[in-house]
Amino acid sequence: MGWGFDHKLPLLLTKFLDKLIHLEVAEDRFKVNKEKLLKDYRNHTKEAAHVHARYYAGLALVTPKWSYKEKIEALQGLS
Description:
mainly alpha, extended
């Protein structure tokens, strides 16, 4: 009947995967995004108490879930 775009989903998936496989990231953009993420993760300690409560509840209840400390360590290992 042609109500949607279902017939184009394979093409969309193919184009998406092609872009993902051939992804090129400029080194300067990578560094900027890495530093922003590190800053955001480090600033977590300055959040309100209810944000911390939700964060730690999520760590306890959802697996796998990585802590900000683990994320910072992983990011620092990237170049």
